[in-house]
Amino acid sequence: MSLTVPPSLLRAAESGPVDDEDFVACVRESLPYAWQTVSRVASELASADADFADNQVPPPTEAERGQLLRALASDAIRSSLERHFGVKLAFQNCHRIAAFRPSAVDSDTYRRFISVRGQLLNQSPELRDC
């Protein structure tokens, strides 16, 4: 299961649209490692002049790796994180998450990061089964 949904949030979803901040709070509580990682790269980006900031440190456990995969594989979770932090997220493997400024999405840096070549160059035998 991706998220631990409080009964009140489930009731809200059953009766209509859900407030984005309520959903983000559910993500933060359900996927704390993913939240911390995305929060950190978004914060690093906000305090830098670069077009992006990224995480290159593998998760310490399989459970934490799973959190990252669930957060970034879900369109709803990923897009809510992007809206909350005001970034565009890019994901290359089990841990390489980058936060880009929305204005950089059309940049060469972003296109290189999300390219097939970028994906291949970011591989290593240690990451084969990540």
Structure description:
This protein is mostly helical. The chain contains seven helices and three strands; from the N terminus they run αααβααββαα. The protein has one domain. A hairpin with a 5-residue loop joins strand 2 (88-91) and strand 3 (97-100). Helix 2 packs across helix 3, helix 2 crosses helix 5 (75-85) and helix 3 (32-46) crosses helix 4 (62-73). The two termini are 19 Å apart. The mean pLDDT is 88.
Q: Key terms for this structure?
A:
globular; mainly alpha; 9% strand; 130 residues
- Counted by DSSP, the helix tally is 7
The total domain count is: 1
Number of strands: 3
Q: H/E series, N to C? A: HHHEHHEEHH
Mean pLDDT: 88
CA radius of gyration: 15 Å
Beta-strand percent range: 5-15%
Strand order of the largest sheet: 1-3-2
Described by the principal axes of the CA atoms, the overall outline is: globular
- As residue ranges, the low-confidence spans are none
Oligomer: single chain
Helical residue percent band: 40-55%
Largest pleated sheet: 3 strands, antiparallel
Helix/strand class:
mainly alpha
Spatial separation of the terminal alpha carbons: 19 Å
